[in-house]
Design goal:
Elements: H1 12-27, E1 40-45, H2 51-62, E2 66-71, H3 83-90, E3 96-100, H4 104-114, E4 118-120, H5 128-142, E5 149-153, H6 159-171, E6 174-178, H7 187-193, E7 198-201, H8 204-208, E8 213-216, H9 228-235, H10 242-247, E9 253-256, H11 268-273, H12 275-297
Helix pairs in contact: 1-5, 1-12, 2-12, 3-4, 5-12
Amino acid sequence: MKHLLGIEHLTGDDIRRLIAYAGHVKANRGDDIKPLAGQSWAMIFTKSSTRTRVSFEVGLAELGAKSMFLNSNDIQLGRGELIRDTARVLGRMVHGAIIRTYAQADVVEFSEYGDIPTINALTDEEHPCQILADLLTIRELLGTWEGKKIAFFGDGDCNMGRSWAWAAKRLGFELAIAAPELFQPGPGFLARLGEAPVTITDDVEEAAHGADVLYTDTWVSMGKEDEAAERLHLLEPFQINDSVKALANPEAIVQHCLPAYREKEITEKILEEHAAEIFQQAENRLHAHKAILVELAGEYPVEYAPPRA
């Protein structure tokens, strides 16, 4: 791997390797191994962030690298400089780039012109870093994702819904996306996805029945604020609540990639009952991000032999 642009671009073996190393660095956090010592990474964020920014900055520091946080007002991108020109400059100065922005095309273009490892830290198309943290959490809590059913509720055509669809295709677990027709993945995406163990429905009970993981995300993502009233109205029946939880497997876990808006996509009661799982998921962003950084830098410590296909 040279870049992490999306789950779409990974193989199942890539995902399993990253999860294995994320588990390793989590178990050995605090060791004195600094595989990225002497490196500097740029963090280019045009979307605000809590978990992504903190986990990458802490992760880089723990791996021995320096981070440089740049929002659009800090650099000439905010004044119209082309992404390719920014990439050509930074590619000569830093060792890698972590980009959180709106357009997937910007991350792809940066990776093509920067000639340095490039990480998609969220775009409107995909959120691969979150998915890797989620898979680590599922492995920790359920032992495996194999043979499990994951049910996603809400805006199924958001970056999380699409990323989960790619993960299901690559790893073979069952995914049910419950969303109103207006918020279901479109025919273009489904044609690109091809054959996959993914069911898309507007039937909440069908999606929840027998699920091992109940998953949701905010209904009004950044950049969608003007649509808030319509979204909240249409998505109201897709809330994770006691009725939905009762249809899942008795030992089902609940996941939310945060920030959470209680009594909208999830009830206060369900969130607090499953807070330990949800905030374990949030913590795992750090460990997943460290695994991604080490993989892209090609600097696995000699003490660790990553599983290979």
